[in-house]
Amino acid sequence: MTKKLSTTDLIKKIEKLTKQRMAEQPIVSLDSFRDAQQKLHPQNILVIEDDETQRHSLKRILESSGYQVKLAADGAELTLLLDQDQDIHLILMDVGLPWINGFELAQMMKEHRDLKKIPLIFLSAQADEKDFDKAREVGADDYIKKPFDIEKLKIRISELLSEQK
Q1: pTM for the full predicted model
Q2: Is 129 helix (H, G, I), strand (E, B) or coil?
Q3: 1 falls within a domain
Q4: Domain count of the chain?
Q5: Cβ count near 94 (within 10 Å)
Q6: What is the pLDDT of residues 101-153, one digit of tens each?
Q7: DSSP secondary structure string, 73-137?
Q8: Residues 118, 47 within the same domain
Q9: What CATH number corresponds to the domain at position 75?
Q10: Range of the domain at 58
Q11: Tens-digit pLDDT profile for residues 34-88
């Protein structure tokens, strides 16, 4: 009769064996190590974007890079996600959200004891100097104008996530 493992115990057992097997390899490339780490400890990105097509496109792009993605169309949907006990490692947010714009929402999030530590990137079609200033004012880490280069966005996300560690 086999002993039933809890989910936590199973995760620990898998991680331990994976690390052990990687250590037994004569050479493990840094990319292979990062890929294994990403699979064992995926990073969660929250995308707050009211345009459904853009929201789901960002989800597909980020998931193909190994991230887990949570989606919200606006502040109301964000409240449903905040009720769940999940770690968020980075936030991508549109400025032009309905009811509560991105700047207002970011200001509220930066006043929260846990959310204020999470890197925030604004994505917006608006690109006035006052918008960049407002983004800095509310604590954003970056402000990227739409349309944007996907590869540059992924690089910026990677930079901000590695600064967090």
Answers
A1: 0.75
A2: helix
A3: no
A4: 2
A5: 24
A6: 999 999 998 888 888 899 999 999 887 889 999 999 999 999 999 989 999 99
A7: SSHHHHHHHHHS-----EEEEES--SSS-HHHHHHHHHTSTTGGGS-EEEEES---HHHHHHHHH
A8: yes
A9: 3.40.50.2300
A10: 42-164
A11: 566 555 567 999 999 999 999 999 999 999 888 999 999 998 888 888 877 678 9
